[in-house]
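A reminder from the course coordinator: this example appears on the midterm review sheet, so study it carefully.

Given structure:
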């Protein structure tokens, strides 16, 4: 067993020079030690690139662990709640992992790169938990975050852009598939994955190839208005897709101080990722008991009347606000859906799809605060799910 942590501090990704050239706002923040943009020119413009053309996001700071060794599959399968024996080489799995109490530590994607070789990607760092979970198994865990440069290429023209760039075989790549190609003399991995709920891909390569990859990509996408984007636009898109995020929609179970502040996968709407046919995985006993006795909380997707985003709003069972049953965790006005949407958490058994709830919204205009009680319908589908997202090959636009 071995592990190598990424150094902490003010880091810059291999794509930073290209991002800095495009920056007009000087709006940056730190993501796991790396300097990344909130927005580069205009968050709205960057958002519409996701939905109308091609948008590019620097994924390099995402935590990436390489997992190999004779017991790699046994280890991965015990770590997460879904059956990883079904994920063959060349495929990617969305997964969630829990503590012994069945509370979610994090969610992420697991890439089955080659036979017995995996890459686990997540927003948060989990080296200590991964190492503890590997005790007694013949497995190697390496933090390769700094060793892999990555770009998310998302939007309706992403397939056309990458095809013009000269990536052969892309038309046969199915959702959650990956392939390795020799591109301009260097190895490039392409996965049909993303965090926008749209057609999209992610590109993975060694840091020394990053600038060349960026230049090829933007030359190929110029004709259709390719744009780099920051986290503000990505945040809006992921809410439309109904995707949850750690520290926003749930708290990692290994980082909380108070009881009752964490959520299980069943409470996050991820019950489809929990496979009780598996004989053993972290948190199985607790999750089986929860399934029998019922959950405390439920994740809800809300279609809210009006156009005032329900940031940090309380959720009520009735219009008069007599019974506080939960709160909003993510909210935005969706330009593409023309809806006021949100993700939230409410107490069971309330919040079933199709039910009516009420949201207390406070908003400020010119230093004046207003309060509205807005009707909200609980929906059971993502707000944005275009047909092109699942087509193979995608439409060439």
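Designed residues:
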């Amino acid at each position: 067993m071995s592990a190598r942590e990424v150094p902490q501090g003010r880091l810059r990704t291999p794509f930073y020079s290209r991002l800095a050239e495009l920056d007009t706002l000087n709006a940056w923040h730190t993501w796991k030690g790396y300097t990344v943009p909130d927005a580069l020119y205009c968050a709205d413009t960057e958002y519409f690139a996701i939905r109308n053309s091609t948008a590019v996001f620097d994924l390099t700071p995402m935590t990436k662990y390489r997992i190999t060794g004779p017991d790699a599959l046994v280890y991965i399968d015990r770590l997460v709640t879904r059956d990883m024996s079904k994920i063959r080489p060349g495929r990617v799995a969305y997964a969630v992992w829990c503590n012994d109490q069945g509370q979610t530590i994090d969610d992420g994607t697991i890439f089955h790169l080659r036979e017995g070789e995996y890459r686990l990607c997540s927003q948060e760092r989990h080296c200590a938990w991964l190492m503890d979970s590997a005790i007694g198994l013949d497995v190697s865990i390496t933090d390769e975050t700094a060793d892999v440069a990555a770009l998310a290429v998302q939007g309706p023209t992403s397939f056309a852009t990458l095809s013009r760039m000269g990536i052969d075989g892309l038309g046969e790549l199915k959702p959650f598939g990956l392939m390795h190609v020799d591109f301009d003399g260097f190895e490039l991995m392409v996965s049909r994955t993303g965090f926008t709920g749209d057609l999209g891909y992610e590109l993975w390569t060694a840091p020394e190839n990053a600038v060349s990859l960026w230049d090829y990509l933007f030359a190929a996408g110029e004709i259709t208005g390719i744009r780099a984007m920051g986290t503000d636009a990505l945040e809006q898109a992921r809410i439309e897709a109904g995707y949850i995020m750690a520290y926003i929609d749930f708290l990692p179970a290994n980082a909380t101080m108070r009881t009752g502040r964490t959520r299980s996968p069943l409470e996050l709407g991820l019950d489809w990722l929990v496979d009780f046919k598996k004989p053993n995985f972290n948190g199985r006993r607790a999750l089986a008991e929860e399934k029998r006795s019922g959950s405390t909380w439920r994740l809800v997707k809300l279609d809210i009347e009006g156009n005032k985003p329900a940031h940090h709003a309380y959720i009520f069972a009735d219009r008069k606000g007599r019974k506080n049953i939960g709160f909003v965790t993510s909210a935005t006005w969706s330009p593409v859906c023309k809806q006021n949407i949100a993700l939230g958490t409410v107490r069971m058994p309330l919040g079933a799809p199709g039910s009516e709830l009420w949201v207390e919204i406070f908003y400020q205009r010119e230093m004046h605060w207003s309060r509205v009680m807005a009707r909200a319908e609980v929906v059971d589908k993502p707000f944005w799910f275009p047909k092109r997202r699942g087509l193979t090959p995608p439409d060439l636009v």
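The radius of gyration is 21 Å. The chain has a mean pLDDT of 95.
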